[in-house]
Design goal:
Helix content is 76%, strand content 0%. By secondary structure, the chain is mainly alpha-helical. It binds magnesium ion. Residues 18, 21, 51, 54, 98 line the site of magnesium ion.
Length: 168
């Protein structure tokens, strides 16, 4: 079954949205490195790598459905933040935006009765629940440690344990 044109186009946009997320997280990682918090930087670097995997999941799906992928432009990411909390809040906001995009994709896949796309998107619905949860947890921990340099260092060490390919 051919991929519906409107759905193929929306999935193409999602490839770009996930790559833009990867780009943004890499910029946040660089912000933390510049502010001597290498553990936070590592956490966001791993998050960036995960977003690239998300992009490739859509990319591969589009290809397997015999449709074309067009790689688009990515805007300059924000790299100056007022505080670690500010940077993490930006991440949470971005994930909430991605969740809304996935919801819209799922609604479209239902509308055109593309069951294989719904199956792919079910994975992404679950993934977004995890992403938002992990950002909220990170926000809570960072809020608790924000005004205490020692606790912030402890949290930095903990976050530095995250490796590429693991959830935050
Ligand atoms: Mg993603």
């Amino acid at each position: 079954m051919n991929l519906n044109e409107k759905l193929a186009s929306a999935m193409n946009d999602q490839v770009n949205a996930e790559l833009a997320a990867a780009h943004n997280y890499l910029a946040i990682s660089a912000y933390f490195d510049a502010n001597d918090l290498p553990g936070f930087a590592q956490w966001f670097r791993a998050q960036s790598a995960e977003e690239t995997q998300h992009a490739m999941k859509f990319y591969d799906f589009i290809m397997r459905r015999d449709a074309d992928v067009t790689v688009g432009a990515i805007a300059q990411p924000k790299q100056d933040f007022a505080s670690p909390l500010d940077a993490i809040e930006a991440g949470l906001k971005m994930e909430q935006g991605v969740s809304a995009q996935i919801h819209a994709l799922f609604a479209l896949a239902r509308e055109v009765q593309d069951y294989a796309s719904q199956s792919l998107l079910t994975w992404f619905l679950d993934e977004q629940v995890e992403e938002e949860d992990s950002f909220r947890n990170l926000l809570i921990k960072t809020k608790a440690a924000a005004n205490d340099p020692w606790n912030l260092q402890m949290l930095d060490s903990e976050l530095g344990q995250r490796t590429e390919g693991s959830e935050g």
